[in-house]
Amino acid sequence: MSKLKRSLFHPLPMGFMMIIMIWYVLYLVIATRTIPAPLETFNYFFRHLHPLVIHMGASLMRVVVAVVLAILIGLPVGIAIGRSKRLDKVLSPLLYIIYPIPKVAFLPVFMLLFGLGNVSKVILMLFIIVFQLMLSVRDGVKDIPPHYFTVIRSFSARRKYLYRYVVLPAILPRIFSSLRISIGISLATLFFAENYATTYGIGYFILSAWMKMNYVEMFSGIIALSLLGSVLFGVIDMLEKRLTPWL
């Protein structure tokens, strides 16, 4: 019984049930084809699960590649800026100028430089994630109390142990928080980017359904997009619990 209660009151099922309730109320109140019935939409979703999974897989591949590249670039650069005052003075002003710019404005530039395929879309998401990650990592390194470094140096520890046992544990929570924010923005941007020269992707699927005025199909795509986001957030939560057990 206790396990059943925990599963029912888990944030994800609760949020899902609340969305369904709000959706159903809007369907009854507005009474228009634009908002289909939840049951009809879910029936369509499960009947067309195979093509939806293909579109979700294409979008997931783009997001995962962008996240991996952002970590490989943003993590060492952010640590370097946080540890070096000279680098901080040189690079931080550049980050402050680039970070607030809506990155979707660069999509035409990336398409001209890298073509209309997956490369330009991945680079656009990389552009979104990497600067957020750099700033979070930099701030996390700066917030480490100086005596932590003094203690580990007193043991004549190698530099790699300083990063392994002091820097990385301190910045991991900030990395996961940054990834949550960045992935949410990336999915919104991906929806826009996948409408150009793309035949697979959940953004393409939703806009294609909208142009056909097939609103049941469109809402099925929105459900698929929300599931994709939930899966990514679930993976981040799982990794955070495993890699930061002290929180």
Automatic annotation (TrEMBL):
Give the keywords, sorted: Cell membrane, Membrane, Transmembrane, Transmembrane helix, Transport
Q: Which PROSITE patterns match?
A: ABC_TM1 (PS50928)
Q: What is its main location?
A: membrane
* InterPro entries, alphabetized: MetI-like, MetI-like_sf
What positions does the domain ABC transmembrane type-1 occupy? 56-240
Superkingdom of source: Bacteria
Annotated membrane topology is:
Multi-pass membrane protein
One GO biological process term is: transmembrane transport
GO cellular component: a single term: plasma membrane
Subcellular location as annotated: Cell membrane
Q: Which CDD domains match?
A: TM_PBP2 (cd06261)
Transmembrane regions: 12-32, 52-82, 94-116, 122-141, 162-179, 185-207, 219-239
Question: What is stated as this protein's family in its record?
Answer: Belongs to the binding-protein-dependent transport system permease family.
Protein's UniProt name: ABC transporter permease
What is the scientific name of the source organism?
Halolactibacillus halophilus
What is the organism lineage in this UniProt record? Bacteria, Bacillati, Bacillota, Bacilli, Bacillales
